[in-house]
């Protein structure tokens, strides 16, 4: 396995030369990762990963969902298995290597090849014949001090990394890092309140009771719920948070009269609110989060429109978040209008909209970001953080929003060793996009150098207030 130095750069030789220079200008810039799912405990305890499978396969939805599509049971990959033996872990890795052809043409293959080569020095192509040798080489490496999480954090040149955290979390792992004089990195919590904003959920009342317990506010009333949310947002901000993250079935926002919000809230607490009322209250709660953001300055991000736990059998067997979430179409312009009409131009509000529905980039998100001062378009992620999608994103959004009203790349991953691969992929593709603009004389090369630097570091620092 040998990585081509010009991978993902444009095929035209003249344009490729420009792209190569642009890429080289940002190749060694630090990684800014303002949204991800790496557990903060890893950093706080400076762990070494146990084995190649639990590092590279079991926690990575991208990897195991495609094997599942080709007939592999998730249990054989270690998904939610408490007693997964050493032999089972090795066999799971053999399964990955023997099924290597299923990843051809996917970003997963690109990330794996970068990780294998650049992080672990693997030269063999994965296959049934090479699986054990690759496994042993990785296994030996991750047991050394050079491959502890903190060592890799520094090796990867990560400047800042955000985790994703429940509002009731005490953030003790983050505090442990803050208090550790030997730690010079930056790992920030991010406020993820979805389940507290979903009155239709069967566990909403239980979650709301927990919110009261942790915040010390009485959540038996609407105003008490608002106060509890403000309390927890302040707690997160005091522990370094700069953003909140929201994912619901749609991008809807509403502004209800206070008396109506109180009426529906009390009905939801009593278990008598209708589905329609719960939806209205949820959308009002989202708008309330925007109002709070204007006060406390936390960047608000949203990534709606995913059918969670699409496969009920997998949910029953393995629980939530095992790769069985499926995107669906979404509408933003009308959905966000109630919120943006109030807060869209507020000087302290920053709102980043992500999507898995590419059709809205040119039609809705680009124009919204190209008008409202608060709105930024989130980079492609989750199902569309692939080379082709990233290239289309730049084509579609730049027309109406330019470069500077986008979020910067978001890796959105718990696969720690793939973080450099994902950011490197984005830098190469942005270099190609800007090189084409230089080649047709729409930008000078100096402008393109400034532009790609902005995309790599300026945009995420600004959008996420870093």
TrEMBL record:
It catalyses: D-glucuronate = D-fructuronate. Pathway: Carbohydrate metabolism; pentose and glucuronate interconversion. GO terms for molecular function: glucuronate isomerase activity. The keyword Chloroplast does not apply. InterPro entries: Metal_Hydrolase, Uronate_isomerase. GO terms for biological process: D-galacturonate catabolic process; D-glucuronate catabolic process. Pfam families: UxaC. Keywords: Isomerase. Coiled coil: none annotated. Its EC number is 5.3.1.12. NCBIfam families: PRK02925.1. Belongs to the metallo-dependent hydrolases superfamily. Uronate isomerase family. This is Uronate isomerase.
